[in-house]
Amino acid sequence: MPQHDLVIRNARLADGSGAPLLEGDLAVDGDRIAALGNVPGAGKRTIDAQGRVLSPGFIDVHTHDDFAAILHPDMSFKTAGGVTTCVVGNCGFGAAPWAEAVRMGQSFVDGGALPQWEGYGGYLAHLERHAPGANIAALVGHGTVRAAVMGKKQGAPDAAEMKRMKAFVQEGLDAGCVGLSTGLIYEPGRHAKTDEVVELAALMKGTGALYATHMRNESQGLLDSVNEAVEIGRRAGVPVQISHHKASGRPAWGLVKDSLALIEAAQKKGLDVHADQYPYTAGSTVLSAVIADGRLNDGLGRLTPEDVVIASSAGHAHWEGSTLAALAQEMALDPMDAARRVLEAQPGTTVVLHMMDEADVQTVMRHPSTMIGSDGLPTLSGRPHPRLYGTFARVLGRYCRDLALFPLEEAVYRMTGFPAAKFRLHERGLLKPGFFADLVLFDAKTVIDVGTYEDPNRMPAGIAHVFVNGVEVAADGRGTGAR
């Protein structure tokens, strides 16, 4: 009888499909699952699960880890939390073309200089040669492409500009990108009209690649924004993924019931429309976007200076953790002027924004259209939003176990089989012989996020072992350094 490379025994198997848990074993040979159920014989390595849950690795469908996969290649800030695959290139910020990607993504560059690559083909080839600790799936960023072709031009692209934009998008799709993303609240994506996005997204028709969007307005314009996203998918003939579904700002609280109804209506018409969510009432973004869209001045999702907390500001650690209200008082300035002073000193400053309602978070999470994405900004040297580390443990611990929003099988499905199918991550997301051995062994009784807004850089509790392609990348809440 052949000896397997790894056998995990006495586990509660959550296979990623949403089916009831089964007690059994799982065997791994090389980078693949070899068998599950009652596995006879010994393994070169054997782990006694002791009744803990063994599931497919968690798929983080909304990340900004494009550069972190290069600058922090062990990816322990994700893998120690059970994440084995990261979808990068969200909100219109992509990894190519290189010059615009580096300029626009300066808030996400934390830890050194980036090598240069040519297009998405070059980016993905670099990751193949210098494998990170987690799998990476990439989206083409519309904003990066638009900036490369049109610079700061605010109007619609002319025929020549559209042709160049299409060439950049097509290069990414040919290289293996799984879709196109927009950030219609950010520069320069906010200047793109619906027709522009439809024309670019239509390049993906028939391929299964999807359109992911940080919509134009997540506050009181939420419903119009969902309708626009659905329209883009319908006209382009492509699946739609609504990023970080929420209602921002107190005047918009409660609107998620109507936005969820719009998703349901689209699905009833046969459209492939879903969303993702992070399990917190605070968001995080670049400070420059907060100022640009006027959120401190009755703009998109009204914020008070007390709601805005400096997360990371390279070279200005003394600001990190302070509210904009406190900084304004310290500087003896109006809050808007204080924000401008911060941006003059460090344009890449990121912030945490306290802007959502807990009841809305739970409403969105209960809904079957919702999968999980952290949306964390990997500024590890500052005070990033704790979602960077704790998103998946928080869903399992707080929302599944403690609040009983859904059973464990469904929670795992939202993080594994569901996103694997939506993003066409073949032979991942399920515990199935022949599939890649992306695995998480966790204790359903103790799994929880432990990071706070004040002390965010902490790994979750209750996650015992994490394997990516059969390689153990995290154990007992720490990265192993293996890639």
Descriptive account of the structure:
- The structure is a single chain.
- The protein is α/β, with parallel strands linked by helices and 483 residues long.
- The chain has helices at residues 68-71, 76-79, 98-104, 119-129, 142-150, 159-175, 194-201, 222-236, 256-268, 287-292, 324-331, 335-345, 358-366, 387-402, 408-415, 417-422, and strands at residues 4-13, 22-29, 32-37, 43-48, 53-56, 58-60, 83-88, 135-141, 179-183, 210-214, 240-242, 273-277, 282-286, 308-312, 350-354, 370-372, 439-442, 463-468, 471-475, 478-479.
- A hairpin with a 2-residue loop joins strand 2 (22-29) and strand 3 (32-37).
- Helix 5 crosses helix 6 (159-175) and helix 7 (194-201) packs parallel to helix 8 (222-236).
- The radius of gyration is 22 Å and the shape is globular.
- The mean pLDDT is 94.
Largest sheet, in brief, is: 9 strands, mixed
What form results from the Cα inertia axes?
globular
Instruction: Evaluate the radius of gyration.
Output: 22 Å
Low-confidence stretches: none
What portion of residues belong to β-strands? 15-25%
Tell me the distance between the termini: 30 Å
How many distinct beta strands? 20
Helix content: 25-40%
Mean pLDDT: 94
What structural class do the secondary elements suggest?
alpha/beta
**Tally of contiguous helical segments:** 16
